[in-house]
Amino acid sequence: MATSTPTTLILGAGQAGAEVAFALRQQGYAGRVVLVGDEPGLPYQRPPLSKAYLMRKVDVDALHLRPRTAYETAAIELRTGLRAERVEPGGKRVVFSDGSVLAYDKLVFATGGRARPLQLPGLEHPERLLNLHYLRSIADVDRIHRQFHEGSRLVLIGGGYVGLEVAAAARQCGLHVTVLEALPRVLARVTAAEVSAFYERIHREAGVDIRTGTSVAGVESDPSGDAVRAIRCADGSVVAADLVVVGIGQLPNTELALRAGIAVDNGIVVDEFACTAEPDVLAAGDCTSHPNRLYGRPLRLESVPNALEQARTVAATICGVHRPHDAVPWFWSDQYDLKLQMVGLSQGHERLIVRGDPTGRSFTAFYLQDGRVIAVDAINRPQEFMIAKKLVAQRAAISPDRLGDDSLPLKSLLTTSA
Ligand code: FAD
Hints:
Layout: E1 7-11, H1 15-26, E2 32-37, H2 68-73, E3 76-80, E4 84-88, E5 93-96, E6 101-103, E7 106-109, E8 113-115, E9 132-134, H3 138-144, E10 153-157, H4 161-172, E11 176-180, H5 193-205, E12 209-211, E13 216-221, E14 228-233, E15 238-240, E16 243-246, E17 250-252, H6 255-259, E18 268-269, E19 281-283, E20 288-292, E21 297-299, H7 304-318, E22 330-335, E23 338-344, E24 351-357, E25 362-369, E26 372-379, H8 382-394, H9 400-404, H10 410-417
Parallel strand pairs: 1-2, 1-7, 2-3, 7-19, 9-16, 10-11, 10-16, 11-12, 18-20
Antiparallel strand pairs: 4-5, 5-6, 8-17, 13-14, 14-15, 20-21, 22-23, 23-26, 24-25, 25-26
Helix pairs in contact: 1-7, 8-10
The protein binds flavin-adenine dinucleotide.
């Protein structure tokens, strides 16, 4: 049931959903744009949640992607606090949590992801535990803030980005911090051992108790049963806690699409134009599994640059412009005074070349496969990172000696490799 003015309905008002809406207008879309999100308030960015917002360095207004007037000016109908419950691709309509129904001409899934839940004996009702938290939303951080005080004992389950960013923020706010990581090193899934060792050293020097190879076996509640008192580890150790933050990854929000008969395989399956196999249904951001030419396989990425890039592709496709989503994945993480910028995917690398001194606070790590640069981690080297993005996009073949020679400007290697 198409309406006379074409309607694009966007489900999920996060980074990707909001970008689709504005990119549609920037690309000249004259139809109706409806942006629906189940969270309250204006669409916001998540990266500061584990950084400046957690440290109370910025207030909630600083998180908003745009002011309310921007939506009004661009004639974007923003409906928040409203959940899409059912998508009916046959009838081209969506049913919402308040019982309302909206017809669409184009539908965009931008439903993002949610924190992966911790499953443990004693954790059958995690919602009852007032000091056990996940960190995905403003509401999560506002809950964490109730116990996030100088001198409190924070236990972080998971030594990935979110866990380490929270650890850095917490130390800077005077909390006692223990990180429990099941794998033998932190950031194990995304970086080389050298980079993990660097971050472990930095955190230990800042006073964080990092315990790698330490699986969590259970939680001990206080007598009331409404708070965690300690975390029990598989090695028999017990870590006392005033608050616990779990950061063990993310699950894509794909159930709505799946129930609508749309293909899901570790994300809503889309092509390079962000289209699902269902006519007039597209998707962008953390919820998608999309082809990547550089790596020759589908990827599901959890990063702001990917959400924005793919959202612009969605808008272009809806506007009839063929603009494939063909970006090199990149990401950043801020911990203490360190800006880590990563480009490419390092899985399968055969060699690591380090430029600079990892015993200091600034270096770049190049991941090589078949003699070519497939990924780079740059720590406090933003200018090198800009060049590194090009090296990865080119899969540049550069002699390891030259890559590792900190006296040679990286830029000069780019020219010679092209
Ligand atoms: P989301 O931001 O998850 O937005 C999806 C929205 O859709 C949510 O509001 C969700 O509630 C809503 N929704 C879901 N289902 C429905 C439904 N049925 N009906 C209505 N609404 C629905 N990335 C970086 O690049 N750098 C960083 O430093 C960084 N730090 C991060 C720190 C934290 C703590 C977190 C949680 C993420 C961080 N990320 C970072 C990742 C980045 O925030 C995500 O990649 C990005 O938000 C993805 O945007 P998205 O729009 O796809 O999904």
